[in-house]
User: Which sequence fits this backbone?
């Protein structure tokens, strides 16, 4: 496809007001595409159309509308705690401290000093950036908050891990413990709705991204004070309804969650599906509960999504993955959390993941663990095809994505392993950018928009090698 045709298509999308990549994990909350021109090979020196430098730290994903990319970041006055790959460094450090004969209290204090950043320690500046899709030039940036953060964060997290959402006319920025900020595509603030500051467990921070349905923006806020789901009017920021939640896993008082709500439009109705500590709950568009399913983790991070008629629920690390049929009502939980019923098509015990959300692609469900184990299940039947460690290894947080018959798995070290889609595991090659990456990328036309710790990349086939 020529540059002229691509530009005309982008202009048409902008005129129509249809966002190309509206929110976290894309238009279907399942990051996949069918554009044959998308790249499968890249490096720092090949197939990089542009690289924009992003100051500060943020693990929100890029979104796209009107030929522009929108992304958030937070800069710090002074020195900020830098992220670190993996999830075991705290435990390793604790073991080292214990060998030194320190008391439990002293070990906890050292861990907090190493792994957590607290409000009194930093002064922050929160920004929304608009970046031109074609050139990578900054159209505008808006500081939507400055000062002490309302809560702390684990160094693995960021102060803006929530991905914004757009309807093609406005960008809606939601920071769980700050509130809502709405901007038009030219950078004009439309409204701002402050929200109460809710504590998270151990000051781990927040991450749940908003979702759009009809004229409402939906948020899920599972915290240690009062869990709730709420709808806000897109045009004014006014809260329309709010449903309080009281959920946690039996034997635990943890109430914090990081999973994002999903709008499931199925043949029966439209539902708002959520995963919280211990429970998945679906609501109607007025916030009334439709059904629930137990067996979820006390630390819910992966998000729900649907594919070819089934809803997929990732229970979290060491928990089940379940496929749910439309039209359910009541409590779907079985005594052992692992048997099907009239509305649960299949369950795979202990298939859930701690960090990445799984991908549905070409008839398969690809489940990636944070330690680099990739498992494929048949999407309709739940039968396992294979389970393999990705050859290049590494740690993983971002969701895998798929196109052109391939599955892409981005490690926190910035290396993307490319695996052939299908019932047998086959690693084709890897693409290394050499920079930490946690955010899930956006697929916009024939461009892969990928965020690393310090840059936003437009990865695109060079002009002479693009498929036409």
Assistant:
């Amino acid at each position: 496809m020529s540059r002229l045709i691509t530009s005309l298509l982008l202009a048409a999308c902008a005129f129509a007001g249809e966002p190309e990549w509206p929110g976290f994990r894309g238009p279907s909350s399942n990051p996949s595409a069918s554009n044959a021109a998308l790249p499968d090979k890249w490096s720092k020196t090949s197939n990089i159309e542009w690289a924009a430098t992003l100051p500060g730290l943020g693990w929100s994903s890029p979104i796209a509308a009107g030929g522009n990319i929108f992304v958030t970041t937070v800069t710090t006055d002074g020195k900020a705690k830098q992220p670190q790959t993996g999830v075991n460094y705290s435990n390793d450090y604790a073991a080292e401290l214990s060998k030194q004969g320190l008391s439990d209290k002293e070990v906890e204090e050292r861990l907090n000093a190493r792994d957590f950043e607290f409000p009194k320690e930093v002064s922050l500046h929160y920004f929304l950036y608009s970046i031109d899709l074609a050139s990578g030039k900054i159209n505008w940036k808006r500081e939507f908050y400055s000062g002490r953060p309302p809560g702390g964060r684990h160094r693995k997290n960021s102060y803006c891990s929530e991905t914004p959402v757009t309807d093609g006319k406005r960008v809606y920025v939601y920071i769980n413990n700050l509130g809502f900020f709405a901007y038009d595509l030219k950078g004009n603030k439309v409204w701002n709705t402050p929200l109460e500051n809710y504590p998270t467990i151990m000051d781990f921070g927040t991450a749940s991204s908003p979702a759009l349905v009809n004229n409402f923006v939906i948020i899920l806020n599972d915290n240690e004070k009062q869990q709730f789901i709420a709808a806000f009017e897109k045009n004014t920021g006014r809260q329309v309804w709010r449903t309080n939640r009281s959920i946690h896993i039996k034997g635990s008082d943890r109430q914090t969650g990081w999973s994002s709500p999903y709008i499931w439009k199925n043949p029966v109705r439209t539902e708002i599906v959520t995963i919280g500590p211990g429970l998945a709950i679906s609501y109607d568009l007025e916030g009334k509960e439709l059904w629930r399913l137990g067996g979820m983790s006390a630390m819910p991070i992966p998000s729900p999504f649907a594919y070819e008629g089934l809803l997929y629920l990732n229970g979290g690390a060491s928990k089940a993955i379940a496929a749910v049929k439309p039209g359910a009502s009541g409590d779907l939980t079985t005594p052992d959390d692992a048997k099907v019923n009239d509305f649960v098509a299949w369950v795979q015990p202990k298939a859930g993941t701690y960090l990445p959300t799984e991908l549905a692609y070409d008839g398969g469900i690809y489940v990636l663990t944070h330690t680099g184990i990739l498992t494929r299940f048949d999407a309709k039947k739940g039968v396992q095809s294979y389970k393999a460690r990705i050859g290049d290894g590494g740690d993983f947080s971002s969701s895998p994505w798929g196109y052109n018959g391939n599955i892409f798995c981005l490690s926190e070290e910035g290396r993307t392993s490319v695996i052939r889609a299908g019932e047998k595991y086959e690693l084709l090659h890897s693409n290394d950018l050499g920079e930490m990456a946690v955010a899930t990328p956006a697929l916009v036309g024939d461009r892969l928009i990928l965020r690393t710790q310090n840059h936003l990349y437009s990865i695109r086939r060079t002009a002479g090698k693009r498929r036409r």
The helical segments are 3-16, 89-99, 104-115. The longest strand covers residues 138-147. Residues 18-465 form a domain with the Methylamine Dehydrogenase; Chain H fold (CATH 2.130.10.10).
